[in-house]
Design goal:
globular; mainly alpha; 161 residues; single chain; 8 helices
Length: 161
């Protein structure tokens, strides 16, 4: 089942829009699948795992939708929560600095294609026309940029968590 992990993370990342949520759901899906009764063989393990993950995504969305907002008169509680929010903000800023650093390590055309796709939301065809390159080359630039950023972010995270 481990061979499906990267595909599952990509799938969940697209579904949830957040890498941390995707990793959490993937871990929980694996735990649930591995904890189930081992006497029953799974005919299609990949499909079973992905269905378990999808069910967890639904649970996550439901739980977030059902979360109650903080009452207006609970200012004291809100002040106590400020420090973790500041930590999260600091972490996200650090991640953005790292991402910017990784992007600047890329060749200019590769970086521009990545930003056009991820920031401006342009299609592959629009990027190809704008840069005067083929869509195949756009795909190569995007793949290279994603791979490079992922590798660098992981490396920096392990050095300076």
């Amino acid at each position: 089942m481990e061979q499906y992990y990267k595909d599952l993370l990509r799938f969940l990342g697209r579904k949830l829009g957040d890498a941390h949520d995707a990793a959490d759901v993937a871990q929980e899906a694996y735990a649930r699948v591995l904890d189930r009764n081992a006497n029953c063989a799974i005919a299609q393990p990949r499909a079973f795992l992905f269905r378990a993950a999808l069910n967890l995504c639904t649970d996550l969305h439901r739980s977030r939708r059902g979360a109650q907002p903080l009452p207006l008169d609970a200012e004291a509680d809100a002040v106590r929560c400020e420090a973790p929010l500041q930590d999260e903000l600091l972490y996200r800023r650090q991640q953005l600095v790292r991402l910017e650093r990784a992007l600047h390590e890329l060749p200019s055309a590769c970086r521009r294609a990545f930003l056009m796709r991820q920031v401006e939301g342009m299609s592959h065809n629009e990027i190809a026309r704008s840069l005067g390159i083929s869509t195949d080359m756009v795909n190569k630039h995007l793949t290279r940029a994603l791979r490079h950023c992922r590798t660098r972010m992981r490396a920096w995270e392990s050095i300076d968590p």
